[in-house]
């Protein structure tokens, strides 16, 4: 049994396994190499009885290729043992019918000398490509009346991740360690009240600063995307610039 491993961007790696049933492993060398070039995991086996009776082994594969070295009787015997989830290909030489019917299943055929490009198209139809949906950009909300100091207070609160922060700690974040608590605590109270008034004036109801008595302040809501035209830039890159 031969095996190789690989990856294809966008395709479910756990389902990229292909099994070739054959009576002559050397006969499958070309298609095996082409499958490997396409970065699929491929197994080639002559042990038909082992695979056809072991469901847990067959479930490991998504695509099963029946070699032209198998007799029609052998192929017709094996196909009914495969579950509906298996994609089956029958490899044949010479003039092909596009599909053949075995039992209740209609099965696609491929030429024994199938080219690499044709093989690529056949296999990609069996392996769904994952589509990545781009996230919608966050809406940028303008708060025309916010100034740099307002932004720094909001930034200090936002850093707490929804938890309350004491007034003195918030003063330290806004003005640094060289501040006089007595003067800045009073100024902080004025700024917090002013920010809430500005939000209310702009009809912003999902963002506000809550006063937690005996503790300090807590930011309620998400400030991502805040834009303050009076201090050009976004909340993230503005908030902790030196206030002048």
UniProtKB/TrEMBL annotation:
| Keyword Transcription applies | yes
Q: What is this protein called?
A: Transcriptional regulator
Q: Where are the transmembrane segments?
A: none
Q: InterPro entries given for it?
A: OmpR/PhoB-type_DNA-bd (IPR001867), Sig_transdc_resp-reg_C-effctor (IPR016032), WH-like_DNA-bd_sf (IPR036388)
Q: Which GO terms describe its molecular function?
A: DNA binding
Where does the OmpR/PhoB-type domain lie? 146-219
* Superkingdom of the source species: Bacteria
Question: Its Gene Ontology biological processes?
Answer: phosphorelay signal transduction system; regulation of DNA-templated transcription
Nucleotide-binding as UniProt keyword = no
One Pfam family hit:
Trans_reg_C
**What does the organism's lineage look like at the top?**
Bacteria, Bacillati, Bacillota, Bacilli, Lactobacillales
What keywords tag this UniProt record? Answer: DNA-binding, Transcription, Transcription regulation
């Amino acid at each position: 049994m031969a095996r190789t491993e690989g990856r294809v961007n966008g395709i479910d790696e756990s389902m990229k396994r292909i099994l070739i049933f054959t009576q002559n492993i050397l006969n499958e060398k070309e298609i095996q190499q082409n499958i490997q070039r396409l970065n699929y995991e491929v197994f080639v086996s002559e042990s038909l009885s082992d695979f056809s009776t072991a469901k847990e082994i067959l479930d490991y594969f998504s695509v099963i290729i029946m070699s032209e070295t198998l007799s029609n009787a052998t192929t017709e015997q094996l196909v009914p043992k495969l579950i509906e989830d298996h994609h089956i290909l029958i490899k044949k030489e010479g003039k092909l019918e596009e599909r053949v019917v075995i039992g209740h299943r209609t099965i696609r055929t491929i030429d024994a000398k199938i080219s690499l490009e044709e093989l690529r198209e056949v296999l990609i139809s069996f392996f769904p490509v994952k589509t990545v949906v781009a996230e919608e950009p966050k809406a940028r909300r303008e708060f025309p009346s916010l100034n740099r100091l307002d932004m720094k207070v909001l930034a200090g609160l936002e850093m707490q991740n929804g938890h309350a922060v004491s007034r003195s700690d918030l003063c330290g974040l806004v003005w640094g360690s060289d501040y006089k608590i007595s003067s800045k605590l009073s100024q902080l109270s004025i700024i917090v009240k002013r920010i809430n008034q500005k939000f209310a004036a702009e009809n912003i109801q999902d963002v506000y600063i809550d006063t937690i008595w005996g503790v300090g302040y807590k930011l309620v809501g998400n400030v991502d995307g805040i834009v303050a035209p009076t201090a050009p830039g976004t909340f993230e890159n503005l908030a902790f610039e030196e206030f002048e």
